[in-house]
Structure formats: C-alpha cells, structure tokens
Target: Spore coat biosynthesis protein F
Amino acid sequence: MYQKFPQKIVATIEARMTSSRLPGKVMLPLAGKPSTERLIERLKRSAYIDEIIIATTVNVADDILEELANCLRVKCFRGSEEDVLGRVLAAAEANKAEIIVEVTGDCPLVDHRLIDRGIEEFFNRKIDYASNIIPVTFPIGFDVQVFPTKVLAEVARLTTDPVDRVHVSYYIYNHPEQYRLYNWSAEGEYYWPELRVTLDEKADYELLKIIFERLLPINEDFTALEVIKFLRANPKLLDINKHVRQKEIDEE
Model:
C-alpha cells in the first residue's frame, strides 16, 4: 500500500551530450530508444515522483535533450555546464520542487521500486538525506538519493568547492554532523557492489544493450533483481566491461 506524501517530489536527471569518456552517451539507443528515454520510462513508473526534469546545460550540443524532453512531455531546465549543483537547484526551484530525487543520466537501468523505497525512507525517518550509495553495496547504476530542495539551497550558499559543485549531494553526505543521513544497504542477491550497470564507456554501453534487448521482451518493467539474476546466469557477459574503472569523485 503506497503512502501519500504532502510535498512535491521531483526527479532531476543530470544529463549532457559532452561527456569526456563517451560523448553523446545519453542519446545512445537501447533497444531502439535513446538511453535517456529508457531512463525516463522507468522513472515514470514511480508511485511518488510528481515530475521529471532533464537538467541539462546551455551548450548548443544539448538542444537535442530539450527536444527529447518536449517529445516525452517532461520538463527541461538548462543551466551551467560546470556548476551542476547550481543547475539542479535552479531546476528544482523553477518547478517548485520540495523534494529532489537526484538521478544521473548514466543510470538508464534505475529501478522505480528502489527509488520509491528511498522516498519512503526519507519521509518515514524524517531525515535530510536518504540513499543506498554510502557505502556502495548495490550494483553501480541502481543509485538512489533523496533530499529536500531547501537543504541543497543551503549547501549552495555554504560551498564554492568545485568538487561540491560538480557532485550535487557530495557536501551533504560528507557532513553527517550537519545533516541527518540514512543509508540502506543491499541484502541477499542485491549485494554486488563490484557490478557496473552504469553508462560511462563504450564497453558499458555494449553490456547495457544486451541487458535491454534480452530483458525487455520478457518484462517491459524488469526489475533490478532481474538484471542481477540475468548477469549471474550469464557470467561471461561480465567480461565486456570488467576493465572499466569507476571514476574518482574528483574526475570529470
């Protein structure tokens, strides 16, 4: 039974075409549709998200993301390429968001069931930040982060550090003395922190293509657990991107 929450909950998707490792990755096709469209389809199934915003940049290369947003009838906000925190905050404030679900454009496999769990944890525990990434216990690509717009606005006033401005919630979860944090860890089959199902490099894309092409015909709303079981049943697929190094927090 889903609950009713009084505040406006908005998912912001940080996306741009000029990725250094795989330019244009957010529009690469997955089973016939752009990666960002697949991500949005999966987010739209959330029981709690009131609105979805593609938070992209003013760079002309990102015009295509605004066009996609219009086609899919979701919002688009365009802001600074370097100051991602400022961009996400402005996107949230422009759309009167009270709660932000932070989503990055390199996570097309995001599972709305995990997102909704994060939203429930956030409200039920009366905290400032809920996530499943500190530390990482789920496969990389099933990330969930939920926090109030007012907290992000406070962070924007407190820090000008470039790392904080690029990694939107970094300041929040690195100041537990200042904010009430909660992280839930993966259990059972969900525990697989070494697994990469995110989109950073060409090898990641090759694996994601296979996942979508194999699982979509079986279940259009396939779960994170179905992805995990599929890859455990087909371990040779893990060789495709096992060499890809996860970026450090201070890398572009």
